[in-house]
Specification:
With 105 residues, the chain is an alpha+beta fold. Strands 3-2-1-4-5 form a five-stranded mixed β-sheet. The longest helix is centred in the middle third of the chain and has 8 residues. The chain starts with a helix and ends in an 11-residue tail after the last helix.
């Protein structure tokens, strides 16, 4: 299991108010040894975090592990993390990711 997997568990909560049709998927790729690939998929009860997805993602985010780690722990503002990331597809589906905080101190 990738090291940042636990931090990614916060993503569905951040996406909870994002409207999308069922089966909409957002691919999140964190590059580096601690990273991995996850899919946020809109289901009937909200957004779910999955390790695989058979739907074509409507958007994708690729971000270096250092930037993701710092974003999740409030060490990097979302706007700066966004500049370090590659975003493809619907920007409205990517925006919430850059507000993800997984560690509250």
């Amino acid at each position: 299991m990738p090291v940042l997997d636990t931090f990614m568990r916060a993503a569905p909560h951040v996406f909870r108010d994002v409207a999308a049709v069922e089966r909409t998927a957002v691919e999140i790729r964190i590059t580096g040894d601690a990273g991995g690939v996850w899919f946020l998929t809109r289901g009937g009860r909200g957004w779910e975090l999955l390790s695989g997805c058979d739907a074509e993602p409507a958007a994708s985010i690729a971000i270096p592990q250092d930037a993701a780690w710092r974003l999740f722990t409030r060490g990097l503002p979302g706007d700066e993390a966004k500049r370090l990331a590659t975003v493809i597809g619907d920007p409205a589906l990517c925006e919430p990711f850059f507000r993800t905080v997984a560690v509250i101190a």
